[in-house]
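Incident log, structure service

09:12 report received: a user says their structure output differs between two submissions of the same chain.
09:20 pulled the input from the user's history:
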Amino acid sequence: MLTTTGHDATAHTQTAAPDQWRTFSGSWTASGQRQTLPTEGDRPAAIVGLSGAVVLSSGAGLSRAFRGEAIAFDEGARNGAGRAVWTDTRGDRVFSSLKGDAIATGRRVAGTITGGTGRYEGITGEWTLTWQFVVQTDDGEIQGRASDLSGRFRYGEAR
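09:34 re-ran on a clean worker, output below:
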């Protein structure tokens, strides 16, 4: 299990109106496993599972530290899709759907925030990142870092 230290892990007081957009930025450092399957094209299909630290440098209303987990599928023709969940130190979660290119250095990922639990109930929004670097071994281990994670979110009326 990943533990983060040295960062404010509490959510900030909610002062904005329920439908007001708020921005956030930070980084995501992750590691995991990639499994591939040959296709008729020049690129294999792949399933990737990653987990690691999501650390936010800005974003009132969100925790500063999350454990980020993602599962993605790349069907071999530059069309990737997946899901992610960010879990804060209290166990509250933010869920996202993912779209983007295969995980590699310089590739972009877009997330759509689809909901949450606990203090993030009713959250919606969007975020993007570009993988600053990705390293993969021959046996499928993968590590990467994105330092330009940024997005926006708001809470619905249910909050």
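09:41 both user submissions now match this output. Likely a transient worker issue. Closing.
09:42 reviewer note: The domain at 22-155 is CATH 2.40.350.10 (AOC barrel-like). The chain has one domain: 22-155.
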